[in-house]
Protein 1
Amino acid sequence: MIRALLFLTAIPLCAAAAFAKIDGTVVNRTTGKPQPGVSITLVKPGQQGMQTLGTTTSDASGHFVFENDQPGGGPQLLQASYGNVNYNKLMTPNIPTSNVELDVYEATKSPAVAHITQRMLIVEPTLSQIAMGETIVVENDSTTTYYDSDLGGLRFYLPPASNGQVRISAQGPQGMPLPRPAEKTKEADIFKVDFPIKPGQTEFQVSYVLPAGSPFTYHGEVVGVKDMPAGPLRVVAPSGVTISGNDVQQLGVEPNTQATIYNVTATGSFSFDISGTGSLHSNDESAGDNSDSPQVTEGKPQIYAHLGWLLGLAFSILAVGLIVLFRSSPVQSPSGR
């Protein structure tokens, strides 16, 4: 009897914790003060996509509250919009839902607050095409977000032989990779990506394919956002692939993958010859796939990481209902015989 009472008492507490309200403060990390008037949305991922649970605005003291009266549980996402930039905070079941701090920053149109710390071009030729993958890492050490939709957060060169077919993903600090479109600029074959550079590290992935040829001469151009400092461009060639030309200099071989690293010595237009075939993917990864196109891997949504927690809560609530129903049944009541 005592165990049953403890069980009945504990489960509603767990359910109440799962459906508890979310309250906190929007903090402007540029000024170090609470930020009023920020629009905030609470969303929950599900099988049908993102479900909006509520919207609110931070008050004069930067405080906000979501009562979360709809069934909760699992991960939820706080989205704040400030200065035309969205800031997110992932709320998982192990994170306290009270006194949450949601960070925002003042925005600036000066690209000088950020700098490119890494730019790497990976060349993977096959017999039918050449897969080109460029990784760009941008660091923002300031307490402001660089955002200028006219200049973009990234600019890159896209060879005409790609026929304008390119895939781009952008990942902000503590965020997830998001697909982004390539936008044309006034300069021929130069494209931009409209994406804010928040304090911390932002990573861009640019991939496209070119028709194969052996040898093949690649023509490129070192470009960037004006006034945003940039480091050197490195070219990575897998084992079996050779890069040669006056605009590149061999730096060495990476011991694990046996890939050769080159430095592009030109500051504007450059070219180099590509010969051979090879890939940085292991044989196990490529054994079951004969496609020449860049691969897209499919993964489960993040909500599956909390599936066990959700099922446990559901079964617990169901057990409470069954116990209550059983105890109130005439079968168990002497007066009901």
Protein 2
Amino acid sequence: MSQNSFEIPQQMRDLTEKNIEQARAMCSQFIDAMTQAMSVWSKAMPSNGMTPGFKVIDRATKFAKQNVDAPFSLASDLAKAKDIPEALTLQSRFAQTQMQVYASQAQELGRLMAEDVQRVQLRS
């Protein structure tokens, strides 16, 4: 019994990759605009250092950019996949990696928030 492997046509993969790159560019523009707005906001604040919480927001914004880029990278890799088993392997690897990334990001944000709480308490 022969096993027929379903192969995704190259033309379809190329079109998908082009659409993914366009969507990635639009999301990147949005995040860049948000980052610029935060930069303007931080410069308008008093020069006595970052206000409590701003460092957390700044870091969370960087994580958001990272977390938006990651699925686009996966989608680009999936668009290049030649068959279903390859696509499933890519998706599984992505899920495992992202869970580790999210856990690490949560720990860092928790640490930053705890530091801000301590700073606020010391000022009181």
Protein 3
Amino acid sequence: MISGSQGSAVEPPDREPEARVVELERRIGATIRTEADHVAVEEPMEVRVNGSPFAVIMRTPGEDLALAAGFLLAEDVVRDATEIGAIERCLDVEPEARGNVLNVTVVGDAVDRLAVRLGERRQVITTAACGLCGRRTIESLRTRAATVAGEWTVPAAVVRQLPLALRQAQRTFDATGGVHAAALTDLDGQVLRAAEDVGRHNAVDKIIGHALLEGRLPLDRAMLVVSGRTSYELVQKALLGGVPLVAAVSAPSSLAVDLARAAGITLCGFVRGDSFNVYAHGARLSG
């Protein structure tokens, strides 16, 4: 939790994403019955930086401070925790918006980068589906983080178990069936931190954001496992966090493969059961 002079709501670091009970009709053949079920909560969160509107992120409430920090890292506004002076919930908003508006105070070189970003666009709207939408290219990333470190190997058997480790951390998915998940693990496959959200990009921003705020970047002895497919943006976030291996239960995109190969990231896809595909830098895998 980072707070400044204006104060902010205390947010437990391990607060779980929210779910809501709704009434529905379950139809099985000609039978219709009314039941109650859980759905994942989705709400917009406005991120202001130094008081200026910067982005609106559609997300599942929970771990908002880390999400904001991870998002600003990916947007190249901040590059380490020392450039974040405070993250506060705004109280000068309509009552119904409280809890959904954050102001991040940035300092040092981040102030100049903020001016550049604000000049590039008045507002970035990130939906749960599109993330950063490939706005940056691989070439532009090389000025920030050319390649990852990580001179180690990990048994292929450990990689095969990563989706299971992630699945065991998906409590909100158990209740709703409607959220994505991401987790950081150590080299033995033990989960260090997991997050769930309606957006895959948001889940990754939350766990990378926590590491940023805790001053633990680069994560050069960690692995990232994600539900669903691997897009360019997810590999980008791994690169900026210094994560050398990314594993996913589904397919990567072509641009994700290109970036992983250029950045030295081991990229694994279709990690299911006893098999998986390796799209880049398989030398980190043993066995």
Protein 4
Amino acid sequence: MPLTQATGPVTLALGLLSAGHPGQGLLDCVATGLIGRVEDHIASLAARLPDADITLIFDEPGLSGLLVPGFPITRDEAEHVLGKVLTRAPVPAGIHCCADTDWSVVASVRPSLISWDIDSLGAAFLAHTEAIAAATWEGTGFIWGVAPTQTQPLPGDPGVRLQRIVGRLVMAGAKMDGLLEGAMFSPACGLAGLTEGQAEIVAHTVVRLAGELAAHG
């Protein structure tokens, strides 16, 4: 399943606000423009990979701001714009956020995949396990970010951390085969800030950890 990526609407809107946009009508404008660009991008990929089942991931680091007082985008606004772009995306679409956030917003729009950094999940994750669990019964799967995007030693055993997260979701009522069966493993976040050699180290770490986790069930 080939994956491709686009900047998510909340993160894109934050960039425009920082650049001086007054904000009025911004989210709807962002959603419309983003979907148009995504449709062109997916059409280009489909022409080159006609038999591939492409999945799109919206990259949303800006969602971490939902936990910050005074954030310029409300919870309801974030839910609305995310739902709009996911509904109109031409292929199954997921959401990536490499920080803790209001996961009930992410879960409410029923993304095909939730991609996250297992080391970043904290109090906000624990507060919204039931909302995430409910999404698993409607087809939401996971990309588990198991390897930090640095070359420093791993902080403890990622297998233990992953099992704790899975356990929390199971206790909240998640569908078991929506958690690890058919799931994917990835770096915690993007590799853009790394050298080619560092990126290779992180990639090899993901492959090794995925094999170890699969071997231990």
